[in-house]
């Protein structure tokens, strides 16, 4: 399968090793004086190591690679002790990878007694950990899991984002703008479900809920008293989204052309509410083959429930619909696809299931 995975430029790498402690999956090692990716299975493709390379020798690329295997990773982490396991679980929580987090917790619970540390204490510590918190945490520090910003110039002076506890540079390495984050539902419904209808996850002693999982809480209304945002996740641009992020699993996906949200007067309430989002421009964006591969993964691997495509009436915008249809065909999985076309004044010209 094609997925995002780390790529190392050996000519630029000086073997300093700063990337090693920031790869909590243990996918990197210094061999013959260079950082090497030792296993596709262990690279999660999130790029936490990327922002810690002073030589710019690391980048994320989309290529054929074996699927990431959390069970194999946590089994190897357990051999390295409590601090490494704790740092790894917090790393997953930092990046909103709650599916992998639950898999790791299940493995730990099943193997409690065969590892040399108290599993329930580790789970409890991770349960109360909130991504972005800056108090001292010996387990994370000893395992090399620092909270320093990296990647896209993330520094201490940039922590003023209104979702800083979930998306700010203090929450992990790499580019803060491309890190996957799930937001809590703007208005909690009965049963505590999120916009994608996935509900509140519980797994033994670990409870992943809006109050504890580091997701950003929206207030009852915006500061200016306007329409409340219905955005369920970040990032949204197709080049930046991670189709393996847990918020996409089983969700209703809205694939919108860039101009749609500006033309539609009530985009959030009429179209975005209850859906995950991806945006793209079929005319101006480059390397659209990457978009197709990600859509295929969303249909086939994330098993999205429905796919709604919103485009403008201009001829160049038809490409986004063609891309969605091609992705469903290539994925080999039937998914209902709805097409909505807006006029340049925001009026609905066409609304139909394909």
β-strand amount: 15-25%
* Spatial gap, N to C terminus: 27 Å
Question: Helical content, roughly?
Answer: 25-40%
Q: What can be said about the biggest beta sheet?
A: 5 strands, mixed
Give the topology string: H per helix, E per strand. EEEEHHHHHHEEEEEHHEHEHEE
Could you explain how this protein is built, in words?
- The chain is an alpha/beta fold and 354 residues long.
- The chain has 3 domains: 1-67, Alpha-Beta Plaits, CATH 3.30.70.20; 69-153 and 161-220, no CATH class; 227-353, 3-Layer(aba) Sandwich (Rossmann fold), CATH 3.40.50.
- The chain has 10 helices and 13 strands.
- The strands form 5 sheets. The chain has a 5-stranded mixed sheet.
- β12 (337-342) and β13 form a beta hairpin.
